[in-house]
């Protein structure tokens, strides 16, 4: 169950990152509210996952899901540049997540 919480927390991190971008510096109400609500929910799920998972594993996976997910949203939704170097960087993050997952005892 901890991994489900962690993945859900990571997905919520992607949502709050995107909605924060859409809030234009918290000057737009609806995206600002979405940002705050999803941040709180993401942190809550992360804390539940940390009950069973090691800190390093949980935090690394959570931030990795958020980082790669935000990159993908930036490319596919916002039309940001997907240069070869950025794609390689995202792939390295994913490989680190896989290695972290494989090394976890939980």
Automatic annotation (TrEMBL):
Ubl conjugation among keywords: no
TM helices/strands, residue ranges: 33-53, 60-79, 85-102
Annotated InterPro entries: EmrE-like, Small_drug/metabolite_transptr, Small_multidrug_res
Protein name: Guanidinium exporter
Sequence similarity: Belongs to the drug/metabolite transporter (DMT) superfamily. Small multidrug resistance (SMR) (TC 2.A.7.1) family. Gdx/SugE subfamily.
Topology within the bilayer: Multi-pass membrane protein
Keyword RNA-binding: no
This protein's UniProt keywords: Cell membrane, Membrane, Transmembrane, Transmembrane helix, Transport
Subcellular location: Cell membrane
Gene3D superfamilies associated with the record: 1.10.3730.20
Pfam families xrefs: Multi_Drug_Res (PF00893)
Organism: Sneathiella sedimenti
């Amino acid at each position: 169950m901890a991994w489900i919480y962690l993945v859900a927390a990571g997905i919520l991190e992607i949502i709050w990152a995107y909605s924060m971008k859409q809030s234009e510096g918290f000057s737009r109400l609806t995206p600002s509210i979405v940002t705050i609500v999803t941040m709180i929910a993401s942190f809550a799920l992360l804390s539940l996952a940390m009950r069973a998972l090691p800190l390093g594993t949980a935090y690394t996976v959570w931030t990795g899901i958020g980082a790669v997910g935000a990159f993908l949203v930036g490319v596919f939704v916002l039309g940001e540049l997907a240069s070869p170097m950025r794609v390689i960087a995202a792939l390295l993050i994913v490989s680190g997540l896989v290695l972290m997952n494989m090394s976890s005892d939980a």
